[in-house]
Amino acid sequence: MRLTSLLLALCLAGTTTFAQKVKYSKEDIKKMETYLFNEGFNTPSPKKTSTIILKDGTTYKGFCNKIETKKGQIYEVAIKDSATKKNANFNAEQISEMYVYPSNAEKIAKVAKYMGNIRNFGTKKLTKNTNNDRIYFVNQTVSLKNKKDDKEFLMQVINPDFDDIISVYHDPRAKETTGFSVMGSPQLGGGVIKSYYVKKGDKIMWLHKDDFEDNYDFLFGDNAEFMKKYPKNSVEWDYFSFLVNAYTDMNNG
Q: Rounded distance, CA 199 to CA 206, Å?
């Protein structure tokens, strides 16, 4: 009898938990689908001055004319010093931070891609694709796709305005969800980035949309107010940038 009562109680508890799913208004969903991260760029402009800050504090300014990558991530940079005109090579283990400008060619390609998907018009800002500001890279030790040995890379921070608790880094090899197009018209649906590198505390990981639910408690579970307002059974991967921003705002009061 006691066992039956216990099972019934557990079932009721599970039903109650399931019933706590939050229903959002269309206005709320539109807000949550708005992409708040910066665009990820892979190619620095060789015509604009880049800045490299080494771990020992030394600063170099010049034109970034060559980069070496592994799985898209930068592990070595060549720069022509703007003062001495000499070429210098640095690997990621030497560099603390790097500031570069995106290449015009990549910006043009991103604008074309933006215009090719109707979904972008309501969720992203075109100005982020034509960004003329410096892009921030920081040294991070990471296991590529959580499978390779840990190695230092220069990774682009794509939430620099709200990265004080959770830092999100561009994944140059990230794929996007698929949509469909009719007779060459702009694509409908799709276009959602499937993966990022994410750091919270001392842990940095490759976060894929398929693993979002499994890592939800790690990312946001220490804020009860947030979890009540945005429980994981009520949100989608599409809302990730909004959720990181909202979580940061709640934690900062």
A: 9
81 pLDDT higher than 90 = no
All residues at 6 or more sequence positions from 32 whose CB lies less than 8 Å from its CB, including other chains: 24, 235, 238, 239, 242, 243
Q: Contact at 8 Å (CB) between 166 and 199?
A: yes
State in Å, rounded, how far the first CA of the chain is from the last one. 49
Spatial contact of 67 and 143, defined as CB atoms under 8 Å apart:
no
Q: Is 92 helix (H, G, I), strand (E, B) or coil?
A: coil
The three-class DSSP label of residue 155 is: strand
Comparing 2-11, 66-75, 148-157, which segment has the lowest mean pLDDT?
Answer: 2-11
Helix (H, G, I), strand (E, B) or coil at 138: strand
| CA distances for 11 relative to 14, 131, 228, 231, angstroms | 5, 52, 21, 20
Q: What is the pTM of this model?
A: 0.88
The answer to whether the beta carbons of residues 98 and 77 sit under 8 Å apart is yes
Contact between 51 and 60 under an 8 Å Cβ cutoff? The reply is yes
Residue spans of alpha helices (H) in 50-160: 104-115, 118-123
In this prediction, residues 96-107 reach a mean pLDDT of 92
In 102-240, where do the E strands start and end? Answer: 135-142, 151-156, 166-169, 195-200, 203-208
Helices (H) and strands (E) in the chain, counts: 7, 10
Residue 189 has a pLDDT of 64
- DSSP 8-class letter at 175: -
CA distance 107 to 90: 26
How many percent of the chain have pLDDT more than 70?
88
